[in-house]
Amino acid sequence: AERAGQAHFDEIIAKDSRIEPRDWMPEGYRKTLTRQISQHAHSEIIGMQPEANWITRAPSLKRKAILMAKVQDEAGHGLYLYSAAETLGTPRDELNDQLLSGRAKYSSIFNYPARTWADMGAIGWLVDGAAIANQVPLCRASYGPYGRAMVRVCKEESFHQRQGFEILLELANGSDQQKQMAQDAVDRFYEPSLMMFGPPDGDSPNSQQSMAWNIKRFTNDDLRQRFVGMIVEQVKVLGLTLPDPELRFDEESGQWIHKELNWDEFKAVISGNGPCNVQRLARRREAHENGAWVREAAAAYAAQQAEKVA
Ligand code: FAQ
């Protein structure tokens, strides 16, 4: 049965078609998808914190309503993604335990602080921008539930990016102080947003296999290149600059040459030692504990309903 399963799986991958939850799949495929999808879900949930920090201080009622809606969208993305991950067999409670106990990774970017209102602009423009560049190809991921979730997530993400860009545009055209605040936010988020694409290809242990399985469609460096090419143009419209004086397009290699990223910092951040890791996890544990009564009530209601049916 295993041999027939493998043959069927190989055929689906070769045709660039989709694997669905009930199909046979290699254990490694299940494992890498569970890792990537749950990490992605955790990122959405932890990623609510830097922006939630500014909801009460948004400069107008309109900005507040928009920011609240964006943060709620992120919760929704987390929920779709946990559901997609569960179809691979690991229950949500277990995935959540992995996050709360510090065993699971989530995106490095959310371990940086959001210091000013302009950071809401930089997060929308750069962080959501990087997220879209990374996630559009994932709409074609070979695992059905993941690819389908990505389609909807990307639609919402592109709205998020525009709202961030628009915040920065308004600040960049405001007073000198506002313009400076926008530039400072871009300066701080530029390098961490380039790191969202993961380590350079030579240090990316999962890329090759994930590409062979049609989960990833491009390498980390390829997607980082695309993103740099996008923001280089957009920053001109903002009237701001990227904090990368060496940045240039090399005609010969067809590559953007950007500054050397600080990969030691990246490693520290993804192993729990970034500026906000401790605070982010503590806040998440607290929120989980505060939600215990909801889980208890839902379980009691479900038990009652089951009894009625019986
Ligand atoms: N941060 O072999 P690779 C969002 C880990 S967007 C932390 O290259 P892979 C939207 C990697 O997991 C952010 N860890 O790995 C939003 C692996 O770990 P292992 C979320 C990272 O998987 C916006 C190890 O390093 N998006 O949330 C990072 O092939 C605004 C080796 O790396 C996604 O998750 C990193 N930056 O490629 C929300 C997208 N990079 O094996 C709120 C889906 C690498 O030790 C506000 N994920 N690692 O467990 C992916 O596309 C891939 O997983 C990559 C990494 C590209 C991130």
TrEMBL record:
Residues in the signal sequence: none
| Coiled coil (UniProt feature) | none
Q: Which InterPro entries match?
A: Aromatic_CoA_ox/epox (IPR052703), Ferritin-like (IPR012347), Ferritin-like_SF (IPR009078), PaaA (IPR011881), PaaA_PaaC (IPR007814)
Q: Which Pfam families match?
A: PaaA_PaaC
Source taxon at top rank = Bacteria
Tell me what this protein is called. Answer: Phenylacetate-CoA oxygenase subunit PaaA
Species of provenance: Zhihengliuella salsuginis
Q: Which gene encodes it?
A: paaA
